[in-house]
Each structure stands twice: as structure tokens, then as C-alpha cells.
Specification:
Elements (H helix, E strand, L loop, with lengths): L12 E2 L9 E8 L11 H18 L2 E7 L1 H4 L17 E6 L7 H7 L7 E7 L1 H14 L3 E10 L5 H12 L2 E3 L1 H9 L7 H10 L1 H11 L3
Parallel strand pairs: 2-3, 2-5, 3-4, 5-6, 6-7
Antiparallel strand pairs: 1-2
Helix pairs in contact: 1-6, 1-8, 4-5
Amino acid sequence: MSEFPPLGPGKWEFPGEAGDDTKRPVALFICDLQPRFNAVANFDRVVMTGAKMVKAAKILKMGIVVSEQRPEVFGATVPGLGLDDLGLDHNIVKFSKGKFSMVVPEVEGVIAPADARLSVVIVGIEAHICVLQTALDLLRRQVEVYVLADGVSSINKEEVPIALERIRQAGGVVTTSESFLFQVMRDSSRPEFREFAKLVKDTKGETQETLKALLPW
């Protein structure tokens, strides 16, 4: 496992849902986007959202945590996410697991130094199993959790809205990739906004089609 420096001051931060001026470091969690899971409903659309979030993470300097469920069986993370384009200086961890939740001991070591002030945004599969259990485990640790409705799915798509409602009831925030990213950006006067706006424009068509595919409910 790669060393993942503690998420603290100096990384991209935003106020989150607290409604005050508390700044929280932000991390992108990518859950089990592996080729053997391509039977998941609209798998390619989930990967598209994941790829957009990876590009945004590069612009906004968000740390990235990537899990692989038994990669010796289900394969490595799909290359379409663009993780190899991030560069050596980007904070990224990739780890294998048998547990359904991404909150394994190594990840707890990332969370703890953030002093319970971390915000995590989750994309991946399956919504009602690994994504749900990851969200619940993070919430129990006082981490602020965002789950992207246009970035999660399950083999049985009917499971998704039930899982998302359970996450809401537990205190998580269900949102979309574009809404979340604008919330993090906050201000068009920031120097990163020009590159950020180009990303939004370049992915507009994909985003629209993904919303139609993943949010029919």
C-alpha cells in the first residue's frame, strides 16, 4: 500500500454541511470499479463519473483512496478512470480488500489524522453493499459523507434508491457529481476555476446521459 500523508491543512478544504466556517479536507473514495463487475447496471456510466471525479481531484488537489475487491479474482481497477494520469505527486492510495467496506485498518490510519474533520465523496459499486457499508462506517467515525447518485450502481438497479435512502437516514448526503464539485469550488474567482469550468463543459454531454441512466427514479 502506498503511503498516504494525513489529510490536513494545505490540502483543498471547504465548509461542507456544517453551516459554519469549519474547513474540512476532502478525499475521493473510489470503490471497487473493476472489470469483472461490468454486469452492474450502467457500469460504464459509473466509470465515466469516476473519471470526471479523478480529473476534478487533480484540479482541486483532493486525496484519492481506491479499493479493489479481491483483485486476484475480479481484476485490477479499470484503466478508464485515468488514475495513471495523476502524476507521482498526487496523494493516492490503492489497496485490496476482502471486507465489503473500504474502511479497513489502513484507511482508518488516513481518517484518524484528519481529527474527525474529513469530508469524503464516494463513487463506485455496489451501492447497496460496499458503498453502503463504507458510508455507514465513515459516518460512525464522524466523517462527513457524500455519495454521488450519478456515480454509484448495483447489479439490480432497484437496490440503489433504497441504499441511498438508508445513507440519508444515517446522516450522509446524497448529491450529484456536478453539484458536489461546485460546492467544493465555491467561488469563480479561485485560480483553479478556469480549468474546473473546462472540465464541466467537456463532460456536459456525458453528465446529462449519466443522470438519465442512473437517476430514473
